[in-house]
Amino acid sequence: MALASAPHLLIASVSSACPSCPVGRAARQDVFDQDFGTNLMIALFPFLVIGLVSRAAERIGRPAARREREEVEA
Amino acid sequence: MTTARHQGALVSAGILLGTGMGGFVDGILLHQILQWHNMLSSVRPPVDLVSMKYNMVWDGLFHAFTWTATALGLSKLWRAGARSDVPWSGRTFAGSLLLGWGLFNTIEGVVDHQILGVHHVHPGASELAWDLGFIGLGVLLIACGWAGIRAGRTDSTPRGGGVAPEAPASPTS
Question: Which of B12, B23, B116 sits opposite A55 (nearest CB)?
Answer without folding.
Answer: B12
